[in-house]
Amino acid sequence: MPMQLxxxxxxxxxxxxxxxxxxxxxxxxxxxxxxRLVQQHGTLRLLFDMTDFHGWEISAAWEDFKFGVEHYAxxxxxxxxxxxxxxxxxxxxxxxxxxxxxxxFDHADAVEARKWLDAS
Length: 120
What we know:
- The chain has 120 residues and is α/β, with parallel strands linked by helices.
- It is 40% helix and 32% strand.
- The protein has a 5-stranded mixed sheet with strand order 1-2-4-6-7, with helices on both faces. It has a two-stranded parallel ribbon with strand order 3-5.
């Protein structure tokens, strides 16, 4: 499966490991989990680990867009951890679809990404 979810900090932080290419079915697991955590905690912080991530199929990209619109104000911070130049560009692309503060971290700086997410 290209998407694995792990709750941390009592569910206030959701770590999403994405690998390969995401498909529409991946969002059938992801969206309900975010919905549940938002109901429990209000807002969330997300860590997207994009190690070995190759993008989305078109149907999955649409699901990602719908997710962004639905959860526009539900996420405080998003740390995107990647290893490729195009992944860094995703931060600029993501900003109009969320109220969250979004930052990119190189894979070598993953510890810094977690510190940033944990900061008040």
